[in-house]
Amino acid sequence: MSEKKHTPEAGQSEVALAKAKDFWSRNSKPILGIGTALLVVVAGFFIYKQYFVKSKEEKAADVMSKAEEYFRLDSTRLALNGDGQNIGFLAVMSRYSGTDAANLAAFYAGACYIKLDDNANAIKYLKKFSSDAKQIQQRAYKLLGDAYADQGNAKEALDYYKKSAHHFEADKTAAAEALFLAAYLADRVLKDPKQAIALFKELKEKFPATPQGTQVDQYLAQLGEYNAN
Length: 229
Hints:
Blueprint: H1 8-72, H2 76-81, H3 89-95, H4 100-115, H5 119-126, H6 134-151, H7 154-167, H8 172-189, H9 193-206, H10 216-222
Helix pairs in contact: 1-4, 3-4, 4-5, 4-6, 5-6, 6-7, 7-8, 8-9, 9-10
């Protein structure tokens, strides 16, 4: 039987192995403890997301359904404040903050305050709303434009009408309406004919078949632009 050769490399390997065993024997309990703690944290987060957050989302959506019904019926104050048995959008936001339902409730609340001519609160809640659903976000920008316009803040109104027009151009009706309002404000309120002409031309180019698009030429003519392409 051949003898095992003891090379310097082999000696180094044995020393490294001995050190590793010694390190593990001294530190295995803390290492296992940290690993277990991490596992508990991950599992706890999963349980929180799956059961607590999901349950909160479902509960929020459920309790908000009556407020949405009141909103559709144009019972604005009941939609906002509830009816004594069912909570309204304001309570949904406070009790279920952080949920998708609370975020949507902010949009509804802003729309309610627009109807009540309370533009300060309309702006407050619409600015709290944010959505990846482009059509709803487009509508929120349009409502913000309306609220600022009613306050007499034409510059902010113009900015939000332009945001609305450009946010989701696939909805030609809504985009054309917002673009027209922006152009009209630039022309009649801000007295900015250069910007108004540019916006009217954009409206004619992008949305010629919409009701607003078919009226563009007369507004351009009033601004000294005839047969604009």
